[in-house]
TrEMBL record:
Species annotation: Cupriavidus oxalaticus
UniProt entry keywords in alphabetical sequence: Plasmid, Signal
Signal sequence, renumbered to the chain: 1-31
Name of this chain's protein: Tripartite tricarboxylate transporter substrate binding protein
Family, per entry: Belongs to the UPF0065 (bug) family.
Keyword hit for Signal: yes
Keyword Cell cycle among record annotations: no
Coiled-coil regions listed in the entry: none
């Protein structure tokens, strides 16, 4: 009798425990299935119209179609991208505030003495989207048709010619510093809040030249408002087959690409991270986007969050060496 009673009580407790586990697991499953159930804010830490903004808006539009929720772009330029990045780092890790940024996201803390975020600790890598070459461009009135010519001009008249950069610590800035350091040029670098004001001042003749990613600069080249002197990829690109690489222009082995990706705040739930990563990979395979990306010389990649983490670590290791060799530092 007692044995039967004890067995009955154990069975009852087992059923209650199983039910509790089922009930307890439901909110997590439902939360996962429901995401996203409201608009997502995507912060781009530069001005509208630049390369990062152009690619980010293309990806956001496709994600919106796939997810069935609005993706609201919020441009937050300033402090070479730190203001927008910091806003995402401080946001709730719920998947409703994301960061679309370029490789400068991980480069800036390497060169900025007072960087307001840690590129690894403060963010969750979601997916690398792709990469693009940069092009060396100049004002159309400058008496030069190649990077070699610009180097000759700058050496003949030190401190006469200038570079414009889209922001300190950006790929644009690093490329200009590397070229300036390698050729021993006395060309000051003027910093702007994004590629649009950077290129506007080159076109206006306020600065001589710039290095800028293809998506933002190429339309001005096609329109005849900028002249292109070189590309930063290891090989010439189909869109500009007659334009030599920086490596061909006197710096053997030179290659620097700007890569773009999507991040969330630190501790973003794994299920949301995976879902977003899968959706980004699906988005960049969309035929209409692929055609547009090809025009911009933007090469997409497929990556998991884990693979993106490896890319970030490798890039930090590589660029840290470049920064040290060229003594690049922002106080």
């Amino acid at each position: 009798m007692n044995r039967t009673g004890r067995t009955g009580r154990r069975a009852a407790l087992g059923v209650i425990g199983a039910m509790a586990m089922m009930i307890g697991s439901q909110p997590v499953a439902l939360a996962s299935e429901a995401y996203p159930n409201r608009p997502i804010k995507m912060i781009i830490p530069y001005t509208p119209g630049g390369s990062i903004d152009t690619v980010g808006r293309l990806v956001a539009a496709q994600l919106q179609r796939q997810l069935g929720q609005a993706i609201v772009i919020e441009n937050r330029p300033g402090a070479s991208g730190m203001i927008g990045s910091e806003a995402v780092a401080k946001a709730s890790a719920d998947g409703y505030t994301l960061l679309f940024n370029a490789s400068s996201q991980v480069y800036l803390p390497l060169v900025a003495k007072n960087a307001s975020y840690d590129a690894i600790r403060d963010f969750t890598p979601i997916a690398q989207v792709g990469h693009v070459p940069l092009i060396v461009v100049a004002n159309t009135s400058l008496p030069t048709s190649s990077l070699r010519d610009l180097v000759k001009l700058a050496k003949a008249k030190p401190r006469t010619y200038t570079w414009a950069t889209s922001g300190l610590g950006t790929t644009s800035h690093l490329a200009e510093e590397m070229i300036r350091h390698a050729f021993k040029l006395e060309m000051d670098i003027v910093s702007y809040k994004g590629a649009v004001p950077q290129l506007n001042d080159v076109m206006g003749g306020h600065v001589s030249a710039a290095v800028s990613p293809m998506p933002g600069a190429y339309p001005f080249v096609k329109a005849g408002r900028l002249k292109v002197l070189a590309v930063t990829s290891s090989k010439r690109i189909p869109q500009l087959p007659a334009v030599p690489t920086v490596a061909e222009s006197g710096l053997p082995g030179f290659e620097l690409l700007s890569w773009y990706g999507l991040w969330g705040p630190a501790n973003l739930p794994a299920d949301i991270t995976r879902k977003l990563s899968q959706e980004v990979n699906k988005a960049v395979r969309e035929a209409s986007l692929k055609a547009r990306f090809e025009e911009l010389a933007f090469e997409t990649v497929q990556s998991t969050p884990e693979q993106f983490k490896v890319v970030i670590k490798d890039e930090i290791d590589k660029v840290a060496g470049i920064v040290k060799a060229a003594s690049i530092r922002i106080d």
